[in-house]
Design goal:
- The chain is an alpha/beta fold.
- It is built from 8 helices and 9 strands.
- It is elongated, with a radius of gyration of 22 Å.
- The longest helix is centred in the first third of the chain and has 18 residues, at 55-72.
- Strands 5-9-8-6-7 form a 5-stranded parallel beta sheet. The chain has a 4-stranded antiparallel beta sheet with strand order 1-2-3-4, covered by helices on one side.
- The two termini are 38 Å apart.
- Helix content is 27%, strand content 18%.
Length: 240
């Protein structure tokens, strides 16, 4: 938008994709659709979330088509329209988009006139210099087998992930909800150890840092997450 060039937009996640054209005169921009970023840590990485292999090709082809139409000045580009693609159910839907007069980028009185710190805007924290304390799946299994009561297993994945596979007895609190649900965790003298896990260990490492900053002292990250648990401890469970 700042360069006066249209954006043939596309995004993908798991089985779903989106496409539109932003920053065309009179049409909406990306900030009209998404004025605020998601909470820090809520969006999983590609390694954690995954994408259906053919999905980038489908959405990329739509983007290329829109770019050609814009260059040639022909057809009906996806200006003011958001195309939604559900590969799982093989369904396309379309939503109408309107330019937001109060948008800080393309509105009637824009306030954003230069690039900003997008790491700060998107809540991307810098990598921590010190590693978080960890435990292995073998160590966790041994404690569970001996009925260790000084143990609290916290799962910070999303509910749909929890339905696929889980560690028996674990408590689910998605990472994005963790800051406002700290009261549900054991804390204080005599509180049990908290072992945090996610799919592969990335989100749970963030959770450990968050809990440490909030005063929790006996917190460990499960190295390799539930995928390593399935590989080494319980191969009967489904992987995703």
């Amino acid at each position: 938008m700042l360069l006066g060039k249209p954006n043939a937009y596309g995004s993908i996640f798991r089985f779903e994709g989106q496409a539109s054209v932003f920053a065309v005169k009179g049409g909406p921009c990306y900030r009209c659709l998404y004025p605020e970023p998601p909470p820090p840590g809520l969006v999983p990485s590609c390694a954690e979330g995954g994408v259906l292999g053919v999905l980038p090709g489908v959405v990329g082809t739509i983007q290329a088509t829109e770019a050609i139409k814009l260059i040639l000045g022909t057809g009906q580009p996806l200006v003011g329209r958001l195309l939604l693609y559900d590969a799982f159910n093989m369904r396309f839907r379309e939503l109408k988009l309107r330019r937001d007069p109060a948008c800080p980028v393309c509105g009637d009185h824009p306030t954003v006139k230069a690039l900003i710190d997008y790491d700060q805007f998107c809540g991307v924290a810098p990598a921590a210099s010190a590693p978080v304390p960890e435990t292995t799946v073998a160590e966790l299994k041994a404690r569970l087998d001996r009925g260790d009561t000084n143990l609290f297993v916290l799962d910070v994945r999303e509910p749909n992930e929890y339905q696929i596979c889980r560690i028996a007895g674990s408590t689910l609190i998605p990472l994005g909800e963790l800051p406002r649900r700290l009261s549900e965790l054991p804390q204080g003298p005599g509180a049990p150890d908290i072992v945090v896990h996610c799919k592969m260990g990335g989100r749970s490492a963030k959770a450990v840092r968050t809990l440490t900053e909030k005063g929790f002292t006996r917190v460990q990250n499960l190295k390799g997450g539930i995928l390593e648990w399935i590989d080494k401890i319980d191969p009967t469970q489904s992987k995703y």
